[in-house]
Amino acid sequence: MLDIKWIRENPAEFDTALKNRGLEEKAASLIALDEERRATIQAVQEMQTRRNLLAKQIGELKRTGSNAEALMKEAGLLRDKLPEAEDSLKTLEELLTHTLALVPNVPAPDVPLGADEKDNVEVRKWGEKPSFSFTPKHHFDIGEAMGLMNFEEGAKISGARFVVLKGELARLERALAAFMLDVHTREYDYTEVSPPYLVRTQAMYGAGQLPKFEEDAFVTTNGYWLIPTAEVPLTNLVAEEILDNTQLPLRFVAHTPCFRSEAGSAGKDTRGMIRLHQFNKVELVSVTAPSASETEHQRMLGAAQSILERLNIHYRTVVLCTGDMGLCSRKTYDIEVWLPGQNAYREISSCSNFGDYPARRMNARFRDEDKKIHLVHTLNGSGLAVGRTLVAVLENYQQEDGSVLIPDVLRPYMGGKTLIKG
């Protein structure tokens, strides 16, 4: 979240940032709430000081046999008033924290202004769209015709937006994840992590998922949250820590299932694997000093892009405009892969620099060379969404007879096979 002190000192800049995100101004109301909180803190401290002084004075009067009735009456009144003031302070602090938790991050200066995805700016395009001598099919038509992708079985077991993969398609999904992990760990210096898939509320809050995205998450009856992305456990590895600057940057990668309720997505991508309640993703997380975060952002983006380049699949990269960025982000790149069956680009990765926004929630810090303590910067990106990469392979490598060529880099993971026929 943002620092209320920064908002007090930069109200115009804060309101401009909100306006650029398409939101109403909030500086005045937040500052007023903070002033009320600070005044209540002062009142509580004054009452506590007076209470302690009265206790001392009453004790001295009693020891000397003097009349302490007036002071005892005042002390009694304080005993009644102080708990009420402390409760008021707690309420104000909780309200301020909750309000700040819903306020989005301030966009970086070079983020393009805009209202929605139509205002995102293309910054890179790689490869060429494949050409076909036939009308290319959707991935679900390809997979279902092979008998290796079954949405009806997924629905029978779990309901809508679930899928069962079998045989060589299940193996291909596993091969993609293994390939991605090998690239990121061997060539980009990410440390592979196998994290929990169930996390506490504080971990979801620290990573910025709560309270904003509560409706999009699954929670168990005993209060654990199913991770919507490995970003949550990976980022929280540094929660409540003070790192040494020599440890930075930290780079983590994990392959996990992800669980999302897809609240508000009714009618969108109702067929296929684009929008499921459960899907697999290889996630990248970096923890850096503030001075290194922009360089690390470009490095992470390059790592994610390299996966599609090695698969020889056409994509474009866009920088999101101010109105299309996520809550925690100060700058986000989306990698959009070309899907011939849809005749459209679809997001396959978001790489975001969050600045110190999550670190303030998590109390994640580092000690610099001068022994001063600062908040870390955190970044995350998909490297890549495995299910959507499977979709991209099926649609870009499909053959007229319904088979699918296996990209060269995946063949060692597929036992040397070159083709999937079903």
Structure description:
The protein is α+β, with helices and mostly antiparallel strands. It folds into 2 domains: about 5-100, Helix Hairpins (Orthogonal Bundle); about 115-420, Bira Bifunctional Protein, Domain 2 (BirA Bifunctional Protein, domain 2), CATH 3.30.930.10. About 40% of the residues lie in helices and about 20% in strands. It contains 12 helices and 18 strands. It has helices spanning about 5-10, 10-20, 25-65, 70-100, 140-145, 150-160, 165-185, 200-205, 230-235, 295-310, 355-360, 385-395; strands at about 120-125, 150, 165, 190, 200, 220, 225, 240-245, 250-260, 280-290, 315-320, 330-340, 345-355, 365, 375, 375-385, 405, 420. The strands form 5 sheets. An 8-stranded mixed sheet has the order 1-11-12-13-16-10-9-4. The chain has a 3-stranded antiparallel sheet with strand order 5-7-6. A hairpin with a 4-residue loop joins strand 12 (about 330-340) and strand 13. Helix 3 runs antiparallel to helix 4 (about 70-100). It is elongated and about 105 Å long. The two termini are about 50 Å apart. The model has no long low-confidence stretch (mean pLDDT about 95).
